[in-house]
Protein: Mutator family transposase
Organism: Hydrogenimonas thermophila
Amino acid sequence: ENLSNYFKYPADIRRIIYTTNIIESVHRQFRKLTKTKGAFPNENSLLKLLYMGIQNAQKKWTMPMRNWSLTLSQLAIFFEGRLEEALEL
């Protein structure tokens, strides 16, 4: 049932849905960074480690979204009214 919902969208929108795996990838990076540490002396040391991990991962995020203007138009059609709200934030 969930898979059929996925395929009701055009390929460009599906690509955006699929790229939510980026978030999962960031979480994996965080786990990888923190699992070898038993404990952190304070919260600030943990935040510094995670910040450096994000900085490292961000170097790989250089590829722009393909067909972004077309995808944005399709999102505006499929999610009428909601896209404008999100873009105002």
Summary: The chain has one domain: 2-88. The chain is about 70% helix and 0% strand. Residues 2-88 form one domain.
